[in-house]
Amino acid sequence: MLTPKFRAQPSTGSKKHAHAFVFFLDDTCALTPSLRTLDSAHSGLIARALAASEFEGKTGQSLVIVGTKDAASHVVLIGLGSTKNVKEITLEDAAGHAVSALNAHKIHSAELVVELSSAIKLKPAAAAAHAAFGAKLKTYRFGKYKTKEKPKDKPTLHTLEVVVRETDGAKKIATTLLDVADAIGFTRDIVSEPGNVIHPESLAELCKGLAKHGLKVEVLGEAQMKKLGMGSLLGVGQGSVKESKLVILQWSGGKKGDKPVALVGKGVTFDTGGISIKPAGGMEEMKFDMAGSAAVIGTLYTLAVRKAKVNAVGVVGLVENMPDGNAQRPGDIVTSMSGQTIEVLNTDAEGRLVLADALWYTQSRFKPKAMVDLATLTGAILVALGSKRAGLFSNDDKVAESLARAGEEVGEIMWRLPLGEDYDGMINTDVADMKNISDGREAGSITAAQFLQRFVNDVPWAHLDIAGSAWCKKPLATVPAGATAYGVRLLDRWIANVYEG
Ligand code: BES
Ligand code: MN
Ligand code: ZN
Prior knowledge:
By secondary structure, the protein is an alpha/beta fold. The protein is 35% helix and 20% strand. It has two domains: 5-165, Leucine Aminopeptidase, subunit E, domain 1 (3-Layer(aba) Sandwich), CATH 3.40.220.10; 183-499, Aminopeptidase, CATH 3.40.630.10.
């Protein structure tokens, strides 16, 4: 990822200028002061190009003007939309669009000029910092395995400066944000890595490495989990040659003795479906089935780098769901750590089996103030909500509402779905306390959430089904196509809003 720098004045007119200058324009399309100066230096070229174009300053719009007299320079205009709607996220997204436009035009260096009309509430320093954050996020790339790529096929942009008069203020805000971007890059990396590289053992090792940021990291292996009675989680991993792991990450930045907020993640490093095996076509996508755990790990990383004033714990259940001679069979009955028994009717409904023990362990050991789990849990959530919004389920309106609000602020949005006794009844079975699938295809994401709720012991809890939002096939404003790291920005902001006040 490219880390932008800051400068107080654009280099326009100087001998060593950038290849391109980016300006943000709201939907009045009024030229900002430096744009006006540039326009007069070019006898009105910019105003003429703007008038002749379709550009209306709406969000997502861009206009690239070539032929300005500074050799090789381009002027790029990026829409901000209506001044009354401009927020931090607007600048992040606009800067992300700028990065796309710059790379599309093979530009090597650029300056993003942040000059906002007085109708915009956002402070210039914050606006600039968030522009830098959005730009950095958009320059993420998972390119490590492309060994034969020609330079001309790689993104060209290698120098980016954000221009704002208040450079000191902007730098101060940006320091944390740019660190958060690193945590997001780390999260995207581990989600993108294939199953032969990221498996329970290697992911647990990576977690250990986060101790250098001040996190306390504990790793439980199969013997320890067996002692704790985690028959539900262990059943999922028993067909794999890799040892299942439970990783506990703790950040203690809050008051001593203050109960933590807990995050729990599904970490199925590869989901073949097990004996209830998935069809071959598209199975490779299931390398991302640990995205919930990656979001938890990435959030704890974020809390540590920004020294958040909170006590937080992240628990991730890491398993590989494989079919082999030792694999769990459909019909097997397992006993979870909670003591409740589960009839495993479909070995492909494995995420809930992993979370059952991870959730129970978390609430019983830490007595958290609130507990949020993230999981690529059901294909049905994609059918219901598509790939932008996560499914939100909760037993607590305050938790649900604060999560949804944080999501709106950072652009990681969700939609709440119901829980209820009628759905809960759908996972009852004659031979055990519950079964891991319901009978038909109805309400598949809800019955999965109901299953989880049986393991939260009335702790204020929310479940985010991120099977759709963890991966994007098409790029988003600040996310190149691929792993989105959905959850990191959201949980970081949620914790800041609710627990660090
Ligand atoms: N990891 C999958 C969920 C998934 C499916 C994520 C498609 C992204 C895209 C999960 O383990 C799974 O296989 N769920 C089953 C549940 C079913 C057997 C009740 C599903 O959704 O089909
Ligand atoms: Mn599955
Ligand atoms: Zn799965």
